[in-house]
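Re: weekly structure request thread

Next one in the queue (473 aa):
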Amino acid sequence: MPPLPLTAVYQSCEGCFKDDTQSPLRRCSKCLSIAYCSAASQKTDWSRHKSLCKAIASVFEDPLYRAQFVWDDSPSTDLQTNDELWRTIVWFEMETIQKQLKRPLSARERNMFSRQPKCFGCSRTDRIIRFDNSPLCSALKSCPDCRLAFFCSEDHWNAVKHLHTQPLSAAENNVGLSHCEMNQQLRMDLRFQYSDPEARRFLEWAPKRTKTRWERLGSEQVAGGKREGQGKKTCWEEAFSQDLEQVIQGARAMLSLRAASKGLSMPMTILYALQNLNGENESWTKKDTIVVHILGASIKTEVPKKQLFEEILHRLPEVKTLKLILVGPEVDVSDSKPVDMETCPDCGQKGRKWIHQHHIMLYHDFVSRQSTRFEKPDLAIAFNTGASDHGDSWKETMKVLVERKIPSVFTSYNESEALTESRMLREAGATLLAQNQLGPCRNPWGAISLTPEPFQFIGWYGANMWLAGGFKN
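Done, posted below.
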Protein backbone atom coordinates (compact mmCIF):
# COMPACT_ATOMS: atom_id res chain seq x y z
CA MET A 1 0.00 0.00 0.00
CA PRO A 2 1.18 3.58 -0.66
CA PRO A 3 2.30 5.79 2.26
CA LEU A 4 -0.91 7.31 3.61
CA PRO A 5 -1.81 10.11 3.54
CA LEU A 6 1.15 11.42 1.48
CA THR A 7 -0.01 9.99 -1.86
CA ALA A 8 -3.54 11.31 -1.31
CA VAL A 9 -2.26 14.86 -0.71
CA TYR A 10 0.02 14.78 -3.78
CA GLN A 11 3.24 14.65 -1.73
CA SER A 12 4.28 11.14 -2.74
CA CYS A 13 4.42 9.46 -6.14
CA GLU A 14 1.49 7.12 -6.71
CA GLY A 15 3.68 4.85 -8.80
CA CYS A 16 6.92 4.41 -6.84
CA PHE A 17 6.06 6.13 -3.51
CA LYS A 18 8.99 8.59 -3.60
CA ASP A 19 8.04 11.69 -1.62
CA ASP A 20 8.36 15.21 -2.96
CA THR A 21 11.59 15.83 -1.06
CA GLN A 22 13.28 13.15 -3.18
CA SER A 23 11.85 14.16 -6.53
CA PRO A 24 9.52 16.93 -7.80
CA LEU A 25 5.98 15.68 -8.44
CA ARG A 26 3.41 16.58 -11.08
CA ARG A 27 -0.29 15.89 -10.95
CA CYS A 28 -2.09 13.89 -13.62
CA SER A 29 -3.17 16.55 -16.12
CA LYS A 30 -6.54 14.91 -16.79
CA CYS A 31 -8.00 14.26 -13.31
CA LEU A 32 -5.65 16.38 -11.13
CA SER A 33 -6.24 13.81 -8.37
CA ILE A 34 -2.95 11.95 -8.33
CA ALA A 35 0.77 12.82 -8.58
CA TYR A 36 3.84 11.20 -10.13
CA CYS A 37 7.58 11.78 -10.01
CA SER A 38 8.16 11.03 -13.69
CA ALA A 39 6.51 10.15 -16.97
CA ALA A 40 7.91 6.63 -16.61
CA SER A 41 6.26 6.16 -13.22
CA GLN A 42 2.96 7.49 -14.57
CA LYS A 43 3.15 5.14 -17.55
CA THR A 44 3.76 2.15 -15.28
CA ASP A 45 0.73 3.05 -13.16
CA TRP A 46 -1.56 3.98 -16.07
CA SER A 47 -3.26 0.59 -16.44
CA ARG A 48 -4.40 0.80 -12.82
CA HIS A 49 -5.36 4.47 -12.90
CA LYS A 50 -6.85 4.72 -16.41
CA SER A 51 -10.52 3.90 -15.75
CA LEU A 52 -10.67 5.95 -12.55
CA CYS A 53 -8.98 8.91 -14.23
CA LYS A 54 -11.56 8.98 -17.02
CA ALA A 55 -14.44 8.62 -14.55
CA ILE A 56 -13.19 11.52 -12.40
CA ALA A 57 -12.71 13.79 -15.40
CA SER A 58 -16.15 12.93 -16.76
CA VAL A 59 -18.09 13.29 -13.51
CA PHE A 60 -16.44 16.42 -12.20
CA GLU A 61 -16.91 18.31 -15.45
CA ASP A 62 -20.65 17.61 -15.36
CA PRO A 63 -22.51 20.90 -14.58
CA LEU A 64 -25.25 18.97 -12.74
CA TYR A 65 -22.66 17.42 -10.43
CA ARG A 66 -20.91 20.74 -9.86
CA ALA A 67 -24.21 22.37 -8.96
CA GLN A 68 -24.44 20.16 -5.85
CA PHE A 69 -21.72 22.23 -4.17
CA VAL A 70 -22.96 25.60 -2.94
CA TRP A 71 -20.63 26.92 -0.25
CA ASP A 72 -20.81 29.24 2.72
CA ASP A 73 -17.54 31.18 2.92
CA SER A 74 -17.66 31.28 6.75
CA PRO A 75 -15.15 29.03 8.56
CA SER A 76 -16.27 26.68 11.34
CA THR A 77 -14.32 25.81 14.48
CA ASP A 78 -16.74 22.99 15.37
CA LEU A 79 -14.72 19.90 14.46
CA GLN A 80 -17.68 17.55 14.79
CA THR A 81 -19.66 19.64 12.29
CA ASN A 82 -16.66 19.78 9.96
CA ASP A 83 -16.19 16.00 10.22
CA GLU A 84 -19.86 15.38 9.36
CA LEU A 85 -19.65 17.70 6.36
CA TRP A 86 -16.47 16.00 5.20
CA ARG A 87 -18.07 12.54 5.40
CA THR A 88 -21.03 13.81 3.36
CA ILE A 89 -18.73 15.21 0.66
CA VAL A 90 -16.59 12.08 0.42
CA TRP A 91 -19.47 9.60 0.33
CA PHE A 92 -21.24 11.66 -2.34
CA GLU A 93 -18.06 11.78 -4.44
CA MET A 94 -17.35 8.07 -4.07
CA GLU A 95 -20.93 6.97 -4.79
CA THR A 96 -21.03 9.15 -7.91
CA ILE A 97 -17.71 7.77 -9.18
CA GLN A 98 -18.76 4.18 -8.47
CA LYS A 99 -21.90 4.66 -10.57
CA GLN A 100 -19.76 6.00 -13.40
CA LEU A 101 -17.30 3.09 -13.10
CA LYS A 102 -20.06 0.50 -12.60
CA ARG A 103 -17.95 -1.14 -9.89
CA PRO A 104 -16.99 -0.56 -6.24
CA LEU A 105 -13.88 1.49 -5.53
CA SER A 106 -10.85 -0.38 -4.23
CA ALA A 107 -9.44 0.42 -0.79
CA ARG A 108 -6.61 2.35 -2.44
CA GLU A 109 -9.10 4.38 -4.51
CA ARG A 110 -11.29 5.09 -1.48
CA ASN A 111 -8.24 6.43 0.34
CA MET A 112 -7.58 8.78 -2.57
CA PHE A 113 -10.96 10.45 -1.96
CA SER A 114 -11.23 10.23 1.83
CA ARG A 115 -7.70 11.53 2.46
CA GLN A 116 -7.49 14.25 -0.19
CA PRO A 117 -6.58 17.78 1.02
CA LYS A 118 -9.47 19.83 2.41
CA CYS A 119 -9.74 23.17 4.15
CA PHE A 120 -9.54 22.80 7.92
CA GLY A 121 -12.17 25.50 8.30
CA CYS A 122 -14.78 24.75 5.62
CA SER A 123 -14.01 21.31 4.10
CA ARG A 124 -13.47 22.69 0.59
CA THR A 125 -11.23 20.54 -1.60
CA ASP A 126 -9.20 21.78 -4.56
CA ARG A 127 -11.91 20.35 -6.79
CA ILE A 128 -14.67 22.27 -5.01
CA ILE A 129 -12.60 25.45 -5.12
CA ARG A 130 -12.39 25.07 -8.89
CA PHE A 131 -16.17 24.54 -9.07
CA ASP A 132 -16.85 27.44 -6.73
CA ASN A 133 -14.67 29.93 -8.59
CA SER A 134 -14.61 32.08 -5.45
CA PRO A 135 -12.66 35.36 -5.56
CA LEU A 136 -11.42 34.59 -2.03
CA CYS A 137 -9.28 31.58 -2.95
CA SER A 138 -7.86 29.74 -5.94
CA ALA A 139 -6.15 26.71 -4.36
CA LEU A 140 -5.49 25.10 -0.99
CA LYS A 141 -2.35 25.96 0.95
CA SER A 142 -0.73 23.79 3.60
CA CYS A 143 0.55 24.37 7.13
CA PRO A 144 4.21 25.41 6.71
CA ASP A 145 5.31 23.16 9.59
CA CYS A 146 3.64 19.80 8.90
CA ARG A 147 2.29 20.30 5.34
CA LEU A 148 -0.57 17.93 6.19
CA ALA A 149 -3.22 20.44 7.30
CA PHE A 150 -4.77 22.65 4.63
CA PHE A 151 -6.66 25.92 4.32
CA CYS A 152 -8.37 27.81 1.51
CA SER A 153 -7.68 31.33 2.80
CA GLU A 154 -5.77 33.17 5.52
CA ASP A 155 -9.08 34.04 7.22
CA HIS A 156 -9.98 30.36 7.51
CA TRP A 157 -6.49 29.42 8.72
CA ASN A 158 -6.52 32.14 11.37
CA ALA A 159 -9.89 30.86 12.60
CA VAL A 160 -8.82 27.22 13.01
CA LYS A 161 -5.04 27.30 13.48
CA HIS A 162 -5.32 26.99 17.27
CA LEU A 163 -7.12 23.64 16.85
CA HIS A 164 -4.18 22.39 14.82
CA THR A 165 -1.43 23.63 17.15
CA GLN A 166 -2.83 23.07 20.66
CA PRO A 167 -2.18 19.77 22.53
CA LEU A 168 -4.66 17.04 21.62
CA SER A 169 -7.09 15.45 24.07
CA ALA A 170 -6.09 12.42 26.10
CA ALA A 171 -8.27 10.22 23.89
CA GLU A 172 -6.19 11.11 20.83
CA ASN A 173 -2.75 11.52 22.35
CA ASN A 174 -1.47 11.34 25.92
CA VAL A 175 1.94 12.90 25.48
CA GLY A 176 1.15 16.56 24.96
CA LEU A 177 1.57 16.58 21.18
CA SER A 178 -0.51 18.82 18.94
CA HIS A 179 -2.14 17.73 15.70
CA CYS A 180 0.68 19.53 13.86
CA GLU A 181 3.36 17.70 15.86
CA MET A 182 1.62 14.36 15.34
CA ASN A 183 1.61 15.05 11.59
CA GLN A 184 5.33 15.82 11.68
CA GLN A 185 5.97 12.59 13.56
CA LEU A 186 3.88 10.71 10.98
CA ARG A 187 5.94 12.17 8.15
CA MET A 188 9.18 11.05 9.84
CA ASP A 189 7.75 7.55 10.36
CA LEU A 190 6.67 7.25 6.72
CA ARG A 191 9.99 8.52 5.41
CA PHE A 192 11.82 6.00 7.58
CA GLN A 193 9.55 3.06 6.74
CA TYR A 194 9.48 3.70 2.99
CA SER A 195 12.97 5.12 2.34
CA ASP A 196 15.39 3.65 4.89
CA PRO A 197 16.81 0.24 3.84
CA GLU A 198 16.94 -0.85 7.49
CA ALA A 199 13.29 -0.06 8.22
CA ARG A 200 11.83 -3.36 7.01
CA ARG A 201 13.65 -5.43 9.63
CA PHE A 202 12.22 -3.27 12.41
CA LEU A 203 8.65 -3.90 11.24
CA GLU A 204 9.24 -7.49 12.37
CA TRP A 205 11.85 -6.86 15.07
CA ALA A 206 11.91 -8.35 18.55
CA PRO A 207 14.82 -8.62 21.02
CA LYS A 208 16.81 -11.86 21.04
CA ARG A 209 17.46 -11.80 24.79
CA THR A 210 15.55 -13.72 27.48
CA LYS A 211 14.67 -11.96 30.73
CA THR A 212 15.99 -13.54 33.93
CA ARG A 213 12.66 -12.98 35.70
CA TRP A 214 9.14 -11.72 35.02
CA GLU A 215 8.93 -7.92 35.23
CA ARG A 216 5.49 -6.36 35.58
CA LEU A 217 4.55 -4.17 32.65
CA GLY A 218 3.93 -0.47 33.04
CA SER A 219 0.40 0.84 32.64
CA GLU A 220 1.28 4.45 31.95
CA GLN A 221 -1.14 5.72 29.30
CA VAL A 222 1.52 7.14 26.99
CA ALA A 223 1.41 6.66 23.26
CA GLY A 224 4.06 8.62 21.42
CA GLY A 225 7.58 9.99 21.26
CA LYS A 226 7.28 13.13 23.39
CA ARG A 227 7.41 12.84 27.17
CA GLU A 228 5.03 14.42 29.63
CA GLY A 229 7.72 15.15 32.19
CA GLN A 230 11.43 15.86 32.15
CA GLY A 231 13.33 12.57 31.80
CA LYS A 232 10.14 10.52 31.91
CA LYS A 233 10.13 7.55 29.53
CA THR A 234 7.16 5.91 27.86
CA CYS A 235 6.31 2.27 28.58
CA TRP A 236 7.71 1.30 25.21
CA GLU A 237 10.99 3.10 25.84
CA GLU A 238 11.33 1.52 29.29
CA ALA A 239 10.74 -1.94 27.86
CA PHE A 240 12.78 -1.84 24.65
CA SER A 241 15.18 1.12 24.41
CA GLN A 242 18.08 -0.79 25.98
CA ASP A 243 17.60 -3.69 23.54
CA LEU A 244 17.30 -1.31 20.60
CA GLU A 245 20.50 0.53 21.49
CA GLN A 246 22.40 -2.66 20.73
CA VAL A 247 21.28 -2.61 17.09
CA ILE A 248 20.60 1.04 16.23
CA GLN A 249 21.56 4.38 17.79
CA GLY A 250 20.58 8.02 17.66
CA ALA A 251 17.36 9.55 16.41
CA ARG A 252 16.57 6.47 14.32
CA ALA A 253 16.14 4.41 17.49
CA MET A 254 12.76 6.02 18.27
CA LEU A 255 11.69 5.70 14.63
CA SER A 256 12.62 2.02 14.80
CA LEU A 257 10.69 1.54 18.04
CA ARG A 258 7.56 3.10 16.59
CA ALA A 259 7.85 0.83 13.54
CA ALA A 260 8.43 -2.25 15.70
CA SER A 261 5.48 -1.43 17.96
CA LYS A 262 2.99 -2.36 15.22
CA GLY A 263 3.90 -6.03 15.58
CA LEU A 264 5.11 -6.12 19.17
CA SER A 265 1.83 -4.64 20.39
CA MET A 266 0.32 -8.15 20.05
CA PRO A 267 2.61 -10.10 22.44
CA MET A 268 2.90 -7.12 24.78
CA THR A 269 -0.89 -6.71 24.96
CA ILE A 270 -1.23 -10.44 25.68
CA LEU A 271 1.18 -10.11 28.61
CA TYR A 272 -0.53 -6.94 29.84
CA ALA A 273 -3.92 -8.68 29.64
CA LEU A 274 -2.68 -11.71 31.62
CA GLN A 275 -1.13 -9.39 34.21
CA ASN A 276 -4.38 -7.49 34.74
CA LEU A 277 -6.67 -10.52 34.66
CA ASN A 278 -4.58 -12.22 37.37
CA GLY A 279 -4.02 -9.15 39.54
CA GLU A 280 -1.48 -9.59 42.32
CA ASN A 281 -1.42 -13.38 41.84
CA GLU A 282 1.65 -14.05 39.70
CA SER A 283 1.48 -17.85 39.72
CA TRP A 284 0.58 -17.72 36.01
CA THR A 285 4.12 -16.53 35.29
CA LYS A 286 5.47 -19.83 36.66
CA LYS A 287 3.12 -22.24 34.87
CA ASP A 288 4.61 -25.09 32.86
CA THR A 289 2.37 -24.23 29.87
CA ILE A 290 0.49 -21.07 28.92
CA VAL A 291 -2.29 -21.37 26.34
CA VAL A 292 -3.57 -18.33 24.44
CA HIS A 293 -6.43 -18.37 21.94
CA ILE A 294 -6.27 -15.58 19.33
CA LEU A 295 -9.76 -14.89 18.01
CA GLY A 296 -10.42 -13.56 14.51
CA ALA A 297 -6.81 -14.22 13.51
CA SER A 298 -5.87 -13.42 9.92
CA ILE A 299 -3.31 -14.40 7.29
CA LYS A 300 -2.61 -10.66 6.92
CA THR A 301 -1.79 -9.78 10.54
CA GLU A 302 -1.15 -12.42 13.19
CA VAL A 303 0.13 -15.19 10.89
CA PRO A 304 2.94 -13.27 9.10
CA LYS A 305 4.16 -11.82 12.41
CA LYS A 306 4.00 -15.11 14.30
CA GLN A 307 7.72 -15.03 15.17
CA LEU A 308 7.10 -11.97 17.38
CA PHE A 309 5.04 -14.02 19.84
CA GLU A 310 8.24 -15.62 21.16
CA GLU A 311 8.65 -12.37 23.11
CA ILE A 312 6.06 -13.85 25.51
CA LEU A 313 8.43 -16.73 26.31
CA HIS A 314 11.36 -14.32 26.54
CA ARG A 315 9.56 -12.34 29.26
CA LEU A 316 8.34 -15.41 31.16
CA PRO A 317 11.56 -17.37 31.83
CA GLU A 318 9.85 -19.94 34.10
CA VAL A 319 7.25 -20.98 31.50
CA LYS A 320 8.30 -24.08 29.55
CA THR A 321 5.73 -24.09 26.74
CA LEU A 322 3.70 -21.41 24.98
CA LYS A 323 0.77 -22.68 22.94
CA LEU A 324 -0.99 -20.27 20.61
CA ILE A 325 -4.23 -21.35 18.93
CA LEU A 326 -5.21 -18.98 16.13
CA VAL A 327 -8.89 -19.20 15.21
CA GLY A 328 -10.60 -17.28 12.43
CA PRO A 329 -12.13 -17.58 8.95
CA GLU A 330 -9.10 -15.75 7.47
CA VAL A 331 -6.30 -17.86 8.98
CA ASP A 332 -5.92 -19.78 5.67
CA VAL A 333 -3.89 -22.91 6.44
CA SER A 334 -3.96 -26.40 4.97
CA ASP A 335 -4.50 -28.29 8.25
CA SER A 336 -5.10 -27.70 11.94
CA LYS A 337 -2.35 -29.87 13.42
CA PRO A 338 -0.11 -28.35 16.12
CA VAL A 339 3.22 -27.10 14.76
CA ASP A 340 6.39 -26.78 16.84
CA MET A 341 7.87 -23.40 15.93
CA GLU A 342 11.59 -22.77 15.72
CA THR A 343 12.77 -21.09 18.91
CA CYS A 344 15.82 -18.95 19.53
CA PRO A 345 19.03 -20.84 20.51
CA ASP A 346 18.64 -19.96 24.20
CA CYS A 347 15.07 -21.30 24.40
CA GLY A 348 16.09 -24.37 22.41
CA GLN A 349 18.97 -25.20 24.77
CA LYS A 350 16.63 -24.94 27.76
CA GLY A 351 14.04 -27.24 26.17
CA ARG A 352 11.41 -24.52 25.92
CA LYS A 353 8.68 -24.97 23.30
CA TRP A 354 6.47 -22.67 21.29
CA ILE A 355 3.52 -24.28 19.52
CA HIS A 356 1.16 -22.83 16.91
CA GLN A 357 -2.18 -24.32 15.89
CA HIS A 358 -4.58 -22.80 13.34
CA HIS A 359 -8.32 -23.36 12.85
CA ILE A 360 -10.22 -21.78 9.93
CA MET A 361 -13.58 -21.07 11.54
CA LEU A 362 -15.41 -18.69 13.85
CA TYR A 363 -14.46 -19.08 17.51
CA HIS A 364 -17.90 -20.11 18.75
CA ASP A 365 -17.93 -22.84 16.08
CA PHE A 366 -14.47 -23.93 17.22
CA VAL A 367 -15.66 -24.27 20.83
CA SER A 368 -18.75 -26.19 19.71
CA ARG A 369 -16.79 -28.63 17.53
CA GLN A 370 -14.25 -29.27 20.27
CA SER A 371 -17.15 -30.36 22.49
CA THR A 372 -15.81 -32.19 25.57
CA ARG A 373 -12.25 -31.88 24.22
CA PHE A 374 -12.32 -28.10 24.65
CA GLU A 375 -9.82 -26.84 27.22
CA LYS A 376 -10.21 -23.35 28.63
CA PRO A 377 -7.18 -21.20 27.76
CA ASP A 378 -5.32 -18.85 30.08
CA LEU A 379 -6.47 -16.06 27.77
CA ALA A 380 -8.67 -15.52 24.74
CA ILE A 381 -7.78 -12.30 22.96
CA ALA A 382 -9.27 -10.59 19.91
CA PHE A 383 -7.10 -7.98 18.20
CA ASN A 384 -8.71 -5.09 16.30
CA THR A 385 -11.88 -7.11 15.70
CA GLY A 386 -14.03 -4.56 13.91
CA ALA A 387 -16.88 -6.17 15.87
CA SER A 388 -18.71 -2.84 15.86
CA ASP A 389 -19.12 -3.26 12.06
CA HIS A 390 -19.52 -7.06 11.92
CA GLY A 391 -21.57 -7.57 15.04
CA ASP A 392 -23.66 -10.72 14.59
CA SER A 393 -20.89 -13.33 14.48
CA TRP A 394 -18.95 -11.55 17.23
CA LYS A 395 -22.03 -11.44 19.47
CA GLU A 396 -22.17 -15.24 19.26
CA THR A 397 -18.50 -15.48 20.18
CA MET A 398 -18.85 -13.01 23.07
CA LYS A 399 -21.77 -15.03 24.43
CA VAL A 400 -19.71 -18.25 24.38
CA LEU A 401 -16.76 -16.54 26.10
CA VAL A 402 -19.03 -15.32 28.90
CA GLU A 403 -20.91 -18.62 29.32
CA ARG A 404 -17.66 -20.62 29.44
CA LYS A 405 -16.05 -18.10 31.81
CA ILE A 406 -13.03 -17.78 29.51
CA PRO A 407 -10.64 -14.96 30.54
CA SER A 408 -10.90 -12.60 27.57
CA VAL A 409 -9.71 -9.25 26.25
CA PHE A 410 -10.75 -7.29 23.14
CA THR A 411 -8.74 -4.51 21.49
CA SER A 412 -9.76 -1.87 18.95
CA TYR A 413 -8.22 0.56 16.47
CA ASN A 414 -9.80 3.65 18.05
CA GLU A 415 -11.99 5.02 20.82
CA SER A 416 -15.26 4.81 18.89
CA GLU A 417 -14.83 1.10 18.15
CA ALA A 418 -13.72 0.39 21.71
CA LEU A 419 -16.80 2.04 23.24
CA THR A 420 -19.13 0.12 20.92
CA GLU A 421 -17.42 -3.21 21.56
CA SER A 422 -17.35 -2.57 25.30
CA ARG A 423 -21.12 -2.13 25.20
CA MET A 424 -21.46 -5.34 23.16
CA LEU A 425 -19.43 -7.25 25.76
CA ARG A 426 -21.62 -5.99 28.60
CA GLU A 427 -24.78 -6.84 26.64
CA ALA A 428 -23.39 -10.38 26.23
CA GLY A 429 -23.21 -10.60 30.03
CA ALA A 430 -19.53 -9.84 30.61
CA THR A 431 -18.52 -8.31 33.93
CA LEU A 432 -15.72 -6.05 32.79
CA LEU A 433 -12.67 -5.35 34.93
CA ALA A 434 -12.00 -1.79 36.06
CA GLN A 435 -12.01 0.62 33.13
CA ASN A 436 -8.48 1.89 33.82
CA GLN A 437 -7.15 -1.68 33.64
CA LEU A 438 -8.56 -3.26 30.49
CA GLY A 439 -10.92 -0.68 29.09
CA PRO A 440 -12.52 0.94 27.47
CA CYS A 441 -9.31 2.98 27.63
CA ARG A 442 -6.11 3.68 25.72
CA ASN A 443 -3.86 0.64 25.61
CA PRO A 444 -0.37 1.54 26.90
CA TRP A 445 0.89 -1.32 24.71
CA GLY A 446 -0.95 -0.35 21.56
CA ALA A 447 1.15 0.56 18.52
CA ILE A 448 2.75 4.00 18.76
CA SER A 449 2.98 4.38 14.98
CA LEU A 450 -0.43 5.88 14.26
CA THR A 451 -2.43 6.70 11.11
CA PRO A 452 -4.79 9.67 10.60
CA GLU A 453 -8.50 8.85 10.52
CA PRO A 454 -9.77 9.37 6.95
CA PHE A 455 -13.11 10.94 7.88
CA GLN A 456 -11.91 13.25 10.65
CA PHE A 457 -9.88 16.45 10.64
CA ILE A 458 -8.21 15.47 13.92
CA GLY A 459 -8.23 11.77 14.72
CA TRP A 460 -5.83 8.84 14.81
CA TYR A 461 -5.98 5.06 14.88
CA GLY A 462 -3.43 2.31 15.41
CA ALA A 463 -3.05 -1.42 15.98
CA ASN A 464 -4.52 -2.30 19.40
CA MET A 465 -4.59 1.41 20.23
CA TRP A 466 -7.60 0.94 22.54
CA LEU A 467 -8.65 -1.77 24.97
CA ALA A 468 -12.39 -2.40 24.62
CA GLY A 469 -12.67 -4.51 27.77
CA GLY A 470 -11.49 -7.55 29.69
CA PHE A 471 -13.38 -10.06 31.83
CA LYS A 472 -13.16 -13.40 33.64
CA ASN A 473 -16.84 -13.84 34.57
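The chain has a mean pLDDT of 91. Residues 344 and 359 are 25 Å apart (CA to CA).
Next request, please.
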